[in-house]
Every structure is written in C-alpha cells, then in structure tokens.
Amino acid sequence: MNAVCKAHFQSLSYSRKLVVNRMKREPTRFGRILSFNNQVLLLPSSHTSFSKLIVPSSATTHSLHVLADEDRYDISSTEIRRVIKSHFGGYQEGFTCVTVNCPSCNTLSSTNKEASNDLGKLHINLRTGYSFCTRCFLSGPWSSLASYMKALGASKLKSEKTKICPPGITQHLSQYTPTASTAEANEMRQLWNSAQPIHSLSEETLVPFLDKLRLGDLSMDTLEKVGAKINLNLEQLILPCLTTKDAPFHSIKIITPNHQLDTIEPDSGPELDEYYRVEEKNIPKQHPWLLGYHLAKNKDEVIVTATAADTLTALDCLAVPAVCLPSGISNLPLATMAFLESFRKITLWLGHGVQGADCARAFARKLGEKRCRLIRSSEETPSALQCRMKGKNVAQVLKTALPMTHKSVTTFSSLRKDVYAEITQSSTVAGVRWRRFPVLSDLLKGHRRGELTVFTGPTGAGKTTFLSEYSLDLCMQDVRTLWGSFEIRNVRLAKMMLQQFSGLMLESETREMFNVVADEFEKLPMYFLAFHGQQDVTSVLEAMSHAVYVHDISHIVIDNLQFMMGTSSSEHSSMDRYYRQDQIIGSFRRFATDNNVHVTLVIHPRKEAMDELSASSIFGGAKASQEADNVLILQDKRTNDPTCRRKYLEVAKNRYAGDLGVMPLEFHKESLSFAPRNKRTASTKVAAAAAANNNNKVNQFTSSSLQSGRGRAQ
Fold first, then answer.
1. Taking the model in full, what pTM does it have?
2. Most buried in the list 209, 322, 487, 554, measured by CB within 10 Å?
3. CA-CA distance, 53 to 13, in Å (whole number)?
4. What is the Cα–Cα distance from 583 to 565, expressed in whole angstroms?
5. Residues 288 and 238: beta-carbon distance below 8 Å
6. CA distance from start to end of the chain
7. What is the share, in percent, of the chain residues with pLDDT greater than 70?
8. CA distances from 165 to 120, 139, 529 (A)
9. Quick check: 75 and 67 in contact, CB under 8 A?
10. What is the DSSP string of 236-298?
11. Residue 70 in contact with residue 45, Cβ under 8 Å?
C-alpha cells in the first residue's frame, strides 16, 4: 500500500472514545427504566454528573477491529523479500508468505534438544507484512518486525568491535493473545476440566448423545483422535483446537443441540434443517486456531470446512485430513492463513449454499487460487455432514471438487450448478434482507455481493443518515461493512449509528447506559476509512482493497463520489469532469466485480430546480445509471405545509429482480431513524413487561442480549 493509505482505518474503539468526549450532558436523574432492544436496564435512584462517571480503561476492552497505523506499512512484496533476505540470510517462498526460522523458537530449541522444529517458522505475509509463528504464536505488524531487524543490524555492527548480545525478538513482537477476557479463559478451563473423556463413556450413553447432534454415525476412534470430551450433563461436545497432539490448547469448540428449533415451524426450509440443528460456539469467540490441525500438519493436502460437525464427518469418512475454520464463513484471519501455508492442495468445502460459495472464492483469492479447489454446495453436494446423512458417498463427493480456474474464462459446465442454485435457492441467492426496511427487501429482494448501488438525493434530505441505518441493519446480520465518509467525520458518524442502533437519545442518557450500548455496538463487524475531504481515487481503492483482504469486507459505502473528482493531480488536472467521473465509476464497478463485494456509492444530483428526481438527474453522464445494478433515490417533496415535507425512497433501477417502486419514509428525530415506528413501540412494551419480572436484575446486558437484533445473515 502507498504511504497515503497509512492510518486510513479507525477502529470502533477509537471512535467510541471520541464520541464520549463529544457527548456533553447535564446531570441526569436515575431511578427509571431504560429500554434497549427488548432488554431492560434498571438504574439506581441518585443524581450523578456525567463528568464524575468513570470511564473503563482501554485494558478492560479487547477489540479485534483495531488496525493500528503500524499494521499498514508502505512496502511492497518485493521489498519484503529483499529486507528479509538481507537480515535473515534467506527465506522460503510460500503461497502467501515468506518463511524464516523463528528467532524465538530457535532460542528455545537450542536449550531443548527434543523440541520439534517443524513449527518453529515465522510466516511474513507478502501482502501486509504481518508476521506470525505457528509454534510460539509470536506475531506483529511489519513495522515491529522491521524495528527488530534494524536493531539486529545495529548489534551486528557493534559486535564487530565489542562482544554484544543480539536483541531479542520478543522485545518487538508479542505473543498472540486472542482471549478477550479472563472470564473467557476461566470458562474454557472450567468446562474442559469438568468434562469427561470419550473413552470413559459407554456406547449406550454415547450413541444417544451423538444422535442429538446428528453425529450418530461418528466412530469412537475419530472422537478420540481429536481429543473430544463431553460435559457431565451430556449436553455439550467439547473439542480442543490443537497445534500438536501433546501441546496445550488455547481455544475450544462446543457443539450443542439447538433446542430453539422445537418452536420453529417444520416447513421452515431446507437450509434451516441443514445447518441449524446444532449450535457451535467458540471460546474465545475470536481466535486463529484450526480444529483438527494437529492431524493434518505434516500432510500436503487438507479439506477446509466451516463447521466442527463437517470436520468430524470428513475425518471419519476420508483419508484426507480436514480442519475447521475458527470463524466459519465469516472471515479468514491472517494468523490462520499461516497455519494453512504448508498445504499444497486445499479443498474448500464450506457448505452454506450460495453464501458459502461466495466466501470460498474470496478465501481462495487470499490463499492462492492455484492450490485451491472448491466443492460447490448444492442439493447434490451439500456439507459433508449432510452428504453422509443423505446416504451419499463422501469420498465420491470430494472428487467433484473443481479448481479455481481463470476468472476471465468460463464454460456453461462450470456455471451449471450456479445456474441451478439461482433457480432452486432464489431466496438465498437474493442476499441478506433488511429487517428495518421490509418494503425495500420486497423490492430489491436482498443485499447481494458483487453489485454496485448508486444512491442519490437532494442536499440536506438525509442521505448519510439513511445510509447509516441502511448499512447498520446489514451489519447487525454479520455483513462485514466498511464506511468511507468524506463529508462527515467518523466521530459524528459513529455517534449517529449508536443512536440508531440503540433507539435512544443518548445525549439524555447516563454514561452507564452509553457504555452498555457501546459495548454491544463494538462487537459489530463495522470498520471506517479515515479519509475526510478531497481524496484521490487511487488511494481510496488501495485502502478498500486492503480492507477486503485483511477483514473480509463484503459491503463498502462511499459517501460521496464528488470528493474524488476535485483533486488537482497533474494526471487529471486538464481532464473533463464528466470523463473523470466515468473513469471513477468504472473503477468502482470493476472493484465490486473483481472482489465480489457490494459497493454503495453516493452521487449528488444535478443542481436543477425540480420537485422530483429521476435516474437522469444524477450528476455527470449516463455511465452512473448504466453501470449500477441498483439506483436508489431519496425523494424530498414539498407539501402544502412548509414545515412538513414528504420523504420516500424510490427504487429507480433494479437489475436483479426488475421491481421498481417507492418506500415511504418517516424520520424519527429522537433515534435518527427512518425505520417504521411500530416495531420500536412493540419492543418498548416488551421491555416494560420484562421490567416487572426483573426488578432485581441490574446491568444484565451480555453478549446474548442483542442476538435477537443481530441474527444470522440469510
């Protein structure tokens, strides 16, 4: 990345602190009930000044959204190779990394002759410079590794004159610590220590338990190989994520039956039956370790699945080892890629229908398409577990894996299954539906990857406010979102999103309530570009590309295009503005297609006196409406009452479904929301009813408090 892209990301944690500083409030009266997403917070009766409330220290929070300035370094892969070779004397070329002997592991190996050197390798990612050792878990950005090599070079010069000890790499890089809190670590150890080994259970006890998990055909040998345990209540299958057979583990996966399905209609659809009969949980929630890696580490080929149940099935049926991704189809962390670096052939069998296939293609681009093969999920070849349950030969299904061929050349035979999926899985192909805007979902059918949406509306009509809620709705359904606002600073944008997220006027709430809302909001996969004002489109595209690669972004909002047309670089100073705009739109169109992400691009309309806008009102030539898959217009019409205006969202173009129409909008100032009020009114009644039965519960906001508001992406 160019130097101009440094620090063009801000973590939600940073924005949160700035939002706090901007919220100046009068002393707030306690002793009332505050409702928040169907949950209730009972505050004690007292008078507390905002300035006297205590701010939690940064050490008490841990966010995987943080991408510090030094994580993005201005260096190319060629320069990384040159620097590594000059300081380490050589390197081993990989698919996505260059590998050198880990200085920390080598120091330990010199004192322990029996220590294995297989995993003592430091992997340096050629795209970002991020380094990770798969044995001692030493990790850090390129800037930290560069400072170590600089100190190492200085010590070598001094050692020629006087004997001096070389610097330790642990002074610059730190051990990867994914555990979000001590509570998670204690929970993990307590669950593991209290559980009983598989071999201690009789077959009469074990088989009924596995039947509940839909794993009744699983052999005892497979469970023992992965080191599984079962809790004393026979409700949880606990699986450790090991790097070697005898090494201590740092994370576990827990499989439990999904008892909530008892209340769901039996005809809810095949996908619900396929994936959600069991629940899988990670402790800690975010980590880089692969389930089953200790069985695959010395092999050349591996199968990558999205669920622990599929991994266990593949291990039981196939000779090829299988591993489970730590975050499923959500994202592929850079540290996890280091564990997959040694495999020459990777088969991606992620299931989850069209959504899983899209994620598999994105992961293949990160891992190297030449070594990746894909099993497309369909009715004939669903997940490994479903194949076995339907009586299919899992080994034969594995042979149907197709290579990730050249993206510019294809045939109908390779498209045939995707075409069939378009026909039979129309609801899944349609994408993620908006929950706050059901009318928009009925028109557009959903939010899909690989599309370009052009959004326009009059100045001051509320374009940014609407897009904030529009994107927040998707983000709450695990659509990983990157926001680039050139008009509004990230602090005010984050404040607006917090208010829309909570449905509360936060200026009149307490610091305690703010912390409750912010803690839940911080868990969303929301990222921000730190651009503001005029920017060059090349810098913006480079930052977007970096975010897609590192954070697996699937939705990007750019507000707005005009801020990338005013730069006076020598290359574009004499270029016609319309032609320049067409070039920028073409760049975003290619980016959306090549990276399989949805780009929402705001373009201002022409400054013309008209009561109603149309697709032809978009500033510039016709290329914007031609290239766009969707054109959305925020209409703001005058009424007979000068103090009241009628707003509605018009779908002027819909390439996927062809349905055009309007969605009436009503702005609610207290929550900065355009969503229908009736849903919030209903949630308030539920919260009030819950308050009557929970008078002794104070501050009971946990990670599960907002699951009903977040849900799964359909």
1. 0.72
2. 554
3. 19
4. 10
5. no
6. 34
7. 75
8. 22, 22, 42
9. no
10. -EEEE--SSTTSPPS-EEEEEE-GGGGGS-TTS-HHHHHH-SEEEEEESSS--PPBTHHHHTT
11. no
Helix (H, G, I), strand (E, B), or coil: what is residue 100? strand
Q: What are 38-89's pLDDT values in tens digits?
A: 333 333 333 333 333 333 333 333 333 334 444 445 678 889 999 999 888 8
| Phi, psi angle pair for 409, to nearest 5° | -130, 130
Do 602 and 630 touch, CB atoms closer than 8 A? no
Q: Taking Cα atoms as reference points, which of 333, 239, 236 lies closest to residue 295?
A: 239
356, 357, 362, 367: CA torsion to nearest 10: 90
Q: Which two tokens stand for residue 24?
A: 């100046």
Compute the mean pLDDT over every residue in the chain, rounded to the nearest whole number. Answer: 78
Check whether the bond before 284 is cis (ω within 30° of 0): yes
**What is 12-78 written as a DSSP string?**
HHHHHHHHHHH-----EE-SSEEEETTEEEEPPS-EE-GGGSPPPPGGG---TT---GGGS-S--HH
What's the count of helices (H) and strands (E) in the chain, helices before strands?
25, 29
Residue 134 to residue 138: CA distance in whole angstroms: 8
Strand-pair category, 598-602 with 452-456: parallel
Q: How far apart are CA 394 and CA 318, in angstroms?
A: 7
**For residues 660 and 484, is the Cβ–Cβ distance under 8 A?**
no
Task: Examine residue 560 and say whether the peptide bond preceding it is cis (omega within 30 degrees of 0).
Answer: yes
β-partners of residue 555 are: 481, 598
Question: What DSSP designation does 447 have?
Answer: B
Q: Which residue has the tokens 């005029």?
A: 534
- In angstroms, rounded to a whole number, what is the distance separating the alpha carbons of residues 314 and 385? 8
Rounded to an integer, what distance in angstroms lies between the CA atom of residue 649 and that of residue 634? 5
